[in-house]
Amino acid sequence: MKRLGSVMVVLMLAACSGDSEETENQEAVSLEEDNQEVVDNEADEHEVEDNETDTAEEETSTESEATEETDENDDTEIAETEDDMETEESNREVAETPEFTAREFSEEEKQAMNDEFYNWAVERAEIGNLAVTDYYFGHGAAGHGDWYASTPHGDVQAQDLDNPGFDAFDIHAVGGVVFYNPLSGEYGADENTEVESTASGYQTMAVDDTNIHKYMLADNGVVYEHISAKEETSLSSGFGEYNDDGTRGEYTPTSGFEVSGDQEAQNEWQRILSEYQ
């Protein structure tokens, strides 16, 4: 009887031990499943975060590209607007210039108009610490074609040798002056210096490394200006010559005249020219 009880006790302990091991195994499996679920959840969360990051980066990149495109469009619009304003202003300046009838002035009339402008220029030169001369154009031995200057409004006849002649040009020069920084230090009318020769030009008159400003007075009421370094300027700078047969040949101006930005000079020349219309 005691042995039977011992056996039963052993069986019960074994059963309990088996139940305990099974329970532990179940708990271990359950724990492993829980851990795997946590790992999977974390992986899903990371994948969602990565997707959100990628989406945010794509959105940021798209926004950046859109901003750059907008900036480029804005810059283009600003540039176009500025160009339109400059063109409009240029057209307005031309439109405000009084219309003058081109006619052949006598040499006496041209000299009188040029003298009047020169006297005004002397006062301006004194104020600006410059000197002025009316020797704005000259040349040495040449052919028999007309001399001319290039401007934004077309060729301007500077010397009429009848090849091709007055009627071949819409615009004609009446005279001109030259502003420069005097070596003598005398401002206004520089009485102590003069142009020595066509070749030397303004070399003995102007300070080194300064510019020579040629003003050409045209019969359309516009003052045209040619600016060049003293060392590169001769009496014929800015001018070219037609062929003897009146055709435009190879001897063209190496540089052109522009409309002068000196509005006071423009006003003064228009005032003088209107007196001779």
* Low-pLDDT segments, ≥5 res: 1-51, 78-95
Mean pLDDT: 76
In terms of DSSP E residues, the strand content is 15-25%
How many beta-strand elements?
9
If you compute it from the alpha carbons, what radius of gyration comes out, rounded to the nearest whole angstrom? 46 Å
Secondary-structure element order, N to C: HHEEEEEEEEEH
Structural class: alpha+beta
**How many helices?**
3
So what's the overall shape?
globular
State the end-to-end distance.
156 Å
Helix content percent band? 40-55%
Largest sheet: 9 strands, mixed
Structural features:
277 residues; alpha+beta; 9-stranded mixed β-sheet; 9 strands; globular
Write a concise synopsis of the structure shown:
The chain has three helices and nine strands; from the N terminus they run ααβββββββββα. With 277 residues, it is of the alpha+beta class.
Description of the structure:
This protein has helices spanning 2-96, 107-127, 263-274, and strands spanning 131-133, 147-151, 154-159, 171-180, 188-189, 211-218, 223-229, 239-241, 258-259. The chain is α+β, with helices and mostly antiparallel strands. Strands 1, 2, 3, 4, 5, 6, 7, 8 and 9 form a nine-stranded mixed beta sheet that branches. The longest helix is centred in the first third of the chain and has 95 residues, at 2-96. The model is unreliable at 1-51 and 78-95 (pLDDT under 50).
